[in-house]
Amino acid sequence: MQEFHASAQPTLGVEWEVALIDPVTRDLVSRAADVVALVQAEHPEIHLEREFLANTVELVTPVCHTVPEAVASLRVALDAVKAAADSLGLKLWGSGSHPFCDFRTQPTSDKGHYSEIIERTRYWGNQMLIWGIHTHVGISDKERVWPIINALLTKFPHLLALTASSPGWEGIDTGYASNRTMLYQQLPTAGLPYQFQSWSEWEDYMRDQDRSGVINHTGSMHFDIRPAGKWGTVEVRICDSTSNLRELAAAVALTHCLVVHYDRMLDRGEELPSLQDWHVAENKWRAARYGLDALVITSRATEERLVTDELRDLVAELSPLARELGCYDELQLVLEIIDTGAGYQRQRELFQQHGSWYPAVDATIAEMYR
Question: Mind telling me which Pfam families this protein's record contains (predicted)?
């Protein structure tokens, strides 16, 4: 039995993964435990987690009701983490991956199930130098979870293109906007969720994963969107980590609005959008490859549009709801990203200008400190 502690309101929670960097070498530094300890000693009320990698600190909001409330919580945590990192001579890095760090030099955190994942997945598990944003939105009934998840899958490329920030890997330009997306799906429990039609189908699936020993090895399933039964939420894990709170706020606002929009469609008895599995998979790849230049499939009849045109229409459609939810200004930041460029574009432009990732790393760090 998969428990789901339903939420009466569309509450909001955000997890933001950031990494520690040596500002001289621009390489990752595995001192997350030290940073977390320093922050907790000074600010025990701030919720931080050590993540899969020993170079990563995860900033976690409490249960919030609006995007501005969640962003304000993250800003307080970010300032505390910055101060702790500065005291150790380190800076913070927010992106989907690092463009040249050698994954073989980066240990995992001291948590049992992390070492089990590495033991099981070996080469691919060791490569997970990646960071993302996880947005939780409260759902009032477990039977709504999978219809909403399946509808959200139709907007997968929109959320990914907006936040894509991982073009470099092992010193090269991969040609992808989000190489993180391609890396993460190599894990056997990660990637696109199956489009279950009911909560009971999800329970049958998880029962099989338990019987086969999969969950014993990994702790949970790491789908791009998944139920978080303990919290009574849908957890959207599509987005690359961003280099700044402004772009994070845009992605979280779009996510919050989409979930509530689909939930209200259910209230009205309307049919939620869906796409064939193969279209969902193709859209994911197109967004990872082309980012904001992606041409995405928008219907079961295989119609296509530029993702930027789709995003503009979404902002217009969801703006009245965003006002109600208190995130109108944050939702409008989606348009700012379209106009000024996403993280992958800024990093790639600097790499092409200088023939080195150092200027891209420096500029991305600077964005965190503005």
Answer: GCS2
Residue 212 gets the label, from left (phi > 0), alpha (psi -120 to 50) or beta, of: alpha
What's the token pair of residue 52?
A: 């899969």
Q: What is the largest CA-CA distance in the chain?
A: 57
Inter-axis angle of helices 307-325 and 156-163, to 10 degrees? Answer: 90
pLDDT digits (tens, 9 = 90+) for 222-258: 999 999 999 999 999 999 999 999 999 999 999 999 9
Cβ–Cβ under 8 Å, residues 164 and 38: no
Class of the CATH domain delimited by 12-368: alpha beta
d(CA 199, CA 195): 11
Helix (H, G, I), strand (E, B) or coil at 148: helix
- Domain boundary assignment for the chain: 12-368
CA-CA-CA-CA torsion for 88, 357, 157, 322, nearest 10 degrees? 50
Length of the chain: 370
pLDDT tens for 83-119 read 999 999 999 999 999 999 987 776 666 655 556 666 6
Placement of tokens 């997350």 in the chain = 32
The C-alpha atoms of residue 350 and residue 341 are separated, in whole angstroms, by 13
In the numeric block, which tokens belong to residue 9? 């309101």
